[in-house]
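One thing: could you explain this record?
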Amino acid sequence: MNSLGIFPFGTPVLPITQHDRTRKKVFVLGVYASAVHARWIGADKRQRIGAVAVAPEPEIFWRGDEEEARAIISAIAMPDGTGQLVPASSQLNGPSGRALDDLFLKPLCLTREDAWLCDLVPHSCMNEKQSAALAREYDPLAEHLGLPAYNWPTLPTVLADEQRRAEIASELSESGADIVITLGDHPLKWFTRHYGTEAALSNYGKTPKDYGRLHPIAVNGHDLQLLPLVHPRQAAKLGSHSSVWADLHEQWAAQPSTKLFLA
C-alpha cells in the first residue's frame, strides 16, 4: 500500500478503506479518515502534546479500542531522550466510529456487517491545532533528538475531484447497497450533488418532519435512495457542534419509524 506521507514519529500515512468487500445494505459516506492518537510525554515527564496522530486507523471508522491503540503506539520506536507515547484520552480515539455504530447504524437496526464505509478523503489530515502543537513542541526538538521528519497532509481544498468521485462511485456499485447515507454537508457537496442532489443538508429542511428522510438518487444509471444525516460530530455532540442539528438527529434516532426505512 502506497504511503501518502509520514506522521510525526515516523509512521507512514496510509489510505483507510473498507476491509469487508461483501455486499451491503447501506453505503455510508463520510469526510476524511482519522488516526490513532497518542499523548506525548517528554523525558522530563512533562506532557508535550495531549493528542497527536501517530498512525493510521486500523480500520475505517475505527472505534478506538484501547488495547489496539496501545499495541500500535508501543510499536513506534522513540529516539533516546524523546520520552514516551501512550494512548490519548479514550474520547480522542475512535469517537466518530462509536457514534456511527450507536447513533446512526443502531437506530436503523444495522451493524457494521450491514454497512460499506467510505470517506471522501481516505486518509488522515492534519488540522490547524495539530500543526500548531507540532510547531511548538516537535519541530524545535526534531534535529537535536533525531525525530523523524513528518509530511502529514492537510485537508485538501478539493475534497473529491472527478477521479475520486469515480472511485467512490465504483465502491458504491461494488457494495450493492440500495441506500446511500451521507454524513454532514461535505459528502453532499463533493459527491452526491454531481448526481442531482442538494448540496447542503439544510436544503432538505431543518425540522423533525424533514430530517432523516429518504430521497431518490441515481448514480451511473442505478436508482438508489439517499439518506442525508448529520456529521457524527453533531450527533455525538463532539467539540464544536450545533445543538439544533444534535437535537434533530436525536429525535430521528428515537422514532420507531426509523427502522422501517430498511424493511
Observations:
- The chain has a mean pLDDT of 94.
- Residues 128-145 form the longest helix (18 residues).
- Residues 160 and 190 are 6 Å apart (CA to CA).
- The beta strands are 5-6, 12-13, 26-33, 35-41, 47-56, 84-87, 115-124, 179-183, 215-219, 222-229.
